[in-house]
Structures are given as C-alpha cells and as structure tokens.
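User: Second chain of the day. Same drill as before.
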Amino acid sequence: MPSRLWNRVRESVRREPFVPFIALAAFLLMVFGTWRLRPHLTFPDETGAIELALRMGYEQNPFIDNFRKGGNLHLYLLALSFVPVTLYWLTTGQFGDIISGAASVGSSPSWGVSPDLLRAFYDVLLAGRLVSVVFGAGTVVVVYYLGRELLDRRAGVLASVFLTTTVGYVLTAHYATEDVPMTFFLMLGFLLTVRAFHSRDTRTLLAAALVAGLAASTKATAGLLVAPLALVIIERHWGESGSVVEFVTTAWKYPALTILGYVTTTPSIFVHPGSWANEISRYVVRSTSDVSYSWSDPGWLIQFAHLAEGQGIALFLFAMLSVLLVVVFLIRGTLDNAVWLLLLYAVPYFSVIIQGNMTQFPRVMPLFPILAVLAGVAGAELTRSRRSVRMAGTGLLTLVVVFSGVHTVAGVADVSQSRQEATAWTHANLDGSDTVDVYSQRVYLPEFPEEPTVNRYVIHSSFPRENWQPGLERLDCNAPDYVVLSSYHYFRFFKDPSVYPSVTERMSALFAEEDYEIVRTFGPPVDTELSAERKFRDSAGFASFPEDGNPTIVVLKRIDDEPTC
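Assistant: Same format as last time:
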C-alpha cells in the first residue's frame, strides 16, 4: 500500500511538474515567521483556540462545550498537532510538571507564569500554527486541480499562483486559527463537486457531501457549500427519478453524509446541545443585526476594501475583472457551466457578509481561493484568445503576478514585531520611580520590567465595570506617568463608539495629546480612521499587511510634572 501510494504521488509529480514548486513556494511563504513567539506575538483568536484544544487534554474531556466557530473540527486538528509535542515532553521528563502547571493556571490566558510553562505553551502554539501552514499549502494544490478541472492546466497554474501571492491569505496561514483549514475543506468540496458534475460519478458526489460536513464543522460560514452541492445532486438524480418520493429515496444519503461528517467531528453536539443551539442562533442574529461598527461606508464597499487589502490592488482589480469576464463567457456559452457552482456560493455568501455585524476581514477568507480560481480561469481564457487579446492578456497577467508576488514577499518579510520592540524599549527606559497604566489584556501589550509600578485595568465588556472604572478615574486625574496603548484594544472603541462612549472620548483625548504626549510608537502607524478608502490606499503600496497579528503600540507620557488631582 505505501509503495503504491508513493508511485501515484511520483506519477502525479511527473505529470504536473509545476505543482510541487508552487506548493513549496506557498509553504515557505506561510511558514516564514511562524516561530516568532516572544513576547506573546499572538492574538486572542489564536490563543483562544489553542487554550480550548489544550483544555480537552488536561481536563481529559474531548466533548468541549464551546462552539464559537459553529463546529469543533479545528480544535481536534490542533489537539492532533500537540501529539508530537507531548511525546517530546514525555521523553524529556517535562510532561508531569507541565500538565499540573497548566491545570493550575486554568482556562484564562496568563503570561506571567513560569518560564518553563510559557515555553511549553509556545511549543504547542507553534505546532498549531503549522496546522494552518500545511492546510494553506494544501489549498494551493487543491485550487490548481480545480482550475484544471474547470478549464485546463494553465488555469490551474494561474489559480495556484494567485492564491500563493494573496498576501492576506498567506499571512493568515501564519496563525493557528480556523480560517485557512476551513478554506481547504471548502475548496476540496468544490473540487469533488465539480468532478462529480462532469463525471456523474456517485462515489465522487458522496465524497463531496462528506467534505461539506467537514467544512461546516471547521467553520460554520463554509456551510453554504451545500447550495452548489444540492444543485449537482438534483441535476444528477432528478431526471432519473419518476417522482419526488423516488428522488428522496435516492438522494437521502447525500445530506446524511454531510450531517455525518459534521457530527463525527463535532461530537460535543450530543453532550451540549443547548450550547450548540445558542451559538448557531448567535450566528444568525449577528448576520441579520444592525451594523454596530462605526464605518462611514456601506457594507459592500467595506468588504471590497478588505478583499483589496488582502490581495493587493493589482490582484484585486484583476480578480474583479475576472468575475465579469467569467460571467460573460458563461452567458456566451464558451466556458464550463461548472463555474456557475463557484458563483452560486460566492454571490450569496458575499451578500451575507455585507449585512449586519459581519464586516470584518476574516469574513472574506473563503472568497480568496474562489477568486484565485476565477482569475486563473479568466487569465487562461485571455491567453487562448486571438493574438492581440492574447498579448494584452499576457502582459496584464505578468504585471499582476509580479506586483502581487512582491507585495506578498514584502508583507511576509516585513511583519512588524511591535510588542518585541516595545518590550526592549520599556526595559531600557522605565525605572522604579515610574507608574504605568494599561487598559487591555496582557497579550495585546509589551512586557514591562519589574521596577516600575504597572497598573493593569482591562476595559472590556466581559470584565465588571467596577474593576476598570478606577483606571479611568486615574486617567482623568493624569495620575500615571506613562500610558501604554495597543491598537488591538483602542481601535475597537473607534470601531464601535456606542459600547463605551466615555472610553472612546478619553482615547480620542489621548491621541489629541491634550494631557499626554506620544513619545514612541511601534509597529504600523497610528491610525484611528475606519474607512474603506484607507484600506484601498494601503492595498496599493508594499507596506506590511496591517492584519498581521502585530498591533500598533503607543507610549504616552504625561506632559505636566504632577497629576491634576
């Protein structure tokens, strides 16, 4: 069996020589920098997923009661990645101390634990990041085969190159979140669905149904894959059925397999059905509620701006042109009708994420590989046209690939390490006579030396107001010598001023430098502007991608020598 599998892989590489090179390039871009861990170079979505996966281990309970992403497959993938790390701990005699230490810390993040325990957390954090890297490189391979299935090898090569040079996708693959693994199962589901549409093979269609369940179990937003899948099932079996009853009798196994794929990878649904129902209802309410973010632009423009930010302006513009070209080719009947299946997912999905409280960058993640495939198909079609169109198309493709490639390499190489740099500054410039106030979770901030007095107040809806109100009162009196802010925290008050208007007002006063002056900033430039225009502007340059897991750190010092009260 292993030798037969190896022969199949070798034969596939021989027939598709470009695929391993593109996949290797994607892997290197995605893995570069994943080892940057200290001091806590991460963010809450990532640490939250890692902590939930760890909790299943030290509580010895695989049936976790958390369904924040709609399913739990990603948590089990993370737990699986911890196995080699655990074996390493066992062989080095660290396992017992680490497990007892982790249990004593509990489920809330703490960066003040012993160096040995923190090092162990970094071990599993890196293992979890490698899960995203592997699935990201796998998605690049899948989109190649999907492009080839829809048109030809050239379309496949272009699709895989476009995804490899999508800077937002590559940088998201640096972190142990569920978005990149979800896109792998989503695109694999599309590949199998399109192949079943072409071959009318029942086994392939059954496999597509199973993968659709896995995709939804990774993240609920992939569940819309059932729409194109259902269309192919109807096309495959409706004509052969003499009645509705006969069709249902034939087709019931497809939704059954989708459900099976979901529940076997989210088994906690049977143990905590109430928690699952509450989370699914939260998804529905959130997608239909009024927009709470303080954007000055409509939802569709915000999400276009996120796409431009994630792709770079050149690839974004070509992707939008490609969608129009693909629709024209489909209407003219010169393109495979299976391409409609991608649009059947993408258009309704986009209409959902522009509504309600859904206008965040991670929502566009499923669209990156779909747009890469559509751009690959359109690009390949352009190179097959008459000579003048072929020459113009080739020049345009070259420009897009070069720009987006440089944009991605620059983004990967120039990821800021703001917390690391700010930590070095605090240790070099703060002493025992200084008082420093901070207002966000420790993971958002640099570390401080032991000498100064650091007052920590976490201004967040999940913390009682009486716990952090004294911090605002101290700020009103200009009591601290220094205030240190993180964009991961302060930006949310500009996104949604209605949550805590008084906090937004105080943050605005700090940035206006009324009583405090900004003495140092680390990471991306200070920016409190929440507009699509800014994101389009950023997408046209070669600067570091702003959603790269490294916040802007702002150090402010009191202007007057003494507090005002």
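The longest strand covers residues 516-522.

User: Great, on to the next one.
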